[in-house]
Amino acid sequence: MMKLLGIKIIKVTAVFSVMIFSILMLKTISQYTSFDKNIGFLAFKQQVVGNPYWMTFFYIHIFSITLCLLAGLTQFSNRFLAENRDLHKIIGKIYVYNILIINVPACFVLGLFSNGGLIGITGFLIQDVLWAYLTVAAILSIKKGNVTKHRNYMILSYAVTTTAITFRIVKHLLYNEAQHDYELFYGLNVWAALLINLCIAYTIIRKNTGLSGKINGGKENTKTEK
Asked: Residues 150-185: pLDDT tens digits?
């Protein structure tokens, strides 16, 4: 009972945090609707803002990522899934297509020009590869009828999706311009956000697995849906 309560608290906290920071990200993204090349993040990327390909991928990414965040939120509610299976599939497809067709290619290009030097570039590219792999693995799992693996891979995929939020939280909490080298902090923060999110996802998966085992008499539930 306590483990079930703990999982619910983690999920509610995570959902609430993602909603709040998604709203804040919408506010941040709104400044780019002016297409001014010297505002916000673009002020630090003056060496590439003249590149039309980079700018195109930048706008594609920032204007689509919030939809990806919000679409993923609805996918982890058992009640929502039970009552809205068709809608779950539609929103799931929006999430998957958004990642694989739009954001993975866009983020790969943006990652090549990332701040943070080699540490930051490597971190972003690994995030991008993991994002694609985990999302594809989730798709293949559900096509094979393995609901448990599908859910677990989706949790991990969404963990990568929300690294942008964790990145900003860590930056606002720890970065001190007078004490830290910006490039080094940026690069390390890319890795920190990824590791933090994957650890949280792994904890949720472990707790769900343990709870499922207890509900099924200590045996792992291997039943799949066709």
From this structure: 999 999 999 999 998 899 889 989 998 888 899 999
Contact partners, residue 185, CB within 8 Å, separation at least 6:
171, 174, 175
pLDDT above 70 coverage of the chain, percent: 82
Environment class of 78 (CB within 10 Å of its CB; exposed 0-12, middle 13-18, buried 19+): exposed
Using CA atoms, how far apart are residues 85 and 15, in angstroms rounded to an integer?
20
* Distances in whole angstroms, Cα of residue 40 to Cα of each of 6, 36, 164, 190, 205: 38, 9, 15, 19, 36
- 208-225 pLDDT, tens digit each: 776 554 444 444 444 444
As a whole number of angstroms, the distance between CA 114 and CA 124 comes to: 8
Determine contact, residues 157/197, Cβ cutoff 8 Å: no
CA angle 57, 116, 102 (to 5 degrees): 20
Instruction: For the chain, give percent helix, strand, coil, nearest 5.
Output: 80, 0, 20
Containing 176, the helix (H) or strand (E) segment is: none
